[in-house]
Amino acid sequence: MTNIGHFRAAGKLLEGKQDIPVKLWMAPPTKMDAKQLSEEGYYGILGRAGARMEMPGCSLCMGNQGTST
Q1: pLDDT for 9-33, tens place per residue?
Q2: How deeply is 3 buried, as exposed, middle or buried, from its count of CB atoms within 10 A (0-12, 13-18, 19+)?
Q3: CA separation (Å) from 9 to 13, 15, 37, 63?
Q4: Could you tell me the pTM of the whole model?
Q5: For a Cys staple, 43 with which of 17, 31, 38, 63, CB 3.0–4.6 Å?
């Protein structure tokens, strides 16, 4: 996702959900966005839903996550 609004929308969709039955990896585009999302509580919402939060940047779009566990 490349827009902080996408993370907010995903958070609203997943609010109240726990352990969704899919693998969901998310990587905010910048450290500033990660900080903002954390302050707004979206990291907690996404984490409770089962999302794996990656380091901000292009960790996923660059293919740096070659194996899925």
Answers
A1: 999 999 999 989 998 888 888 899 9
A2: exposed
A3: 6, 10, 11, 24
A4: 0.75
A5: 38
